[in-house]
Amino acid sequence: MPTDLLSIPLETLDGRPTTLGEHAGSAALVVNVASKCGLTPQYEGLERLQSTYGDRGFTVVGVPCNQFGGQEPGTAEEIQSFCSTPYAVTFPMLAQIERTGDDRHDL
Hints:
- The protein is an alpha+beta fold.
- Helix content is about 20%, strand content about 15%.
- A two-stranded antiparallel sheet has the order 1-2.
């Protein structure tokens, strides 16, 4: 199990292997997101942060999870479409991860 947060293996929403190390030297806000949540409008505020501060070394990293009330039930393609269409999300989105149980992700 990796001990360094920046080296934990992750996958982007489009299936590319990555780590948070890709953002080393920058400030990153790693946030759980869900498209079927009462807080879904958070995407608008998160995208505003990204567009305001992205060129200054800041990035939002979205991490979907379906274990909190089943609020992110979609496939990677559905999540990407949802984020792109109404919210025009440009910040990096990771593939869904498990936060609880036997398959809990190291992140």
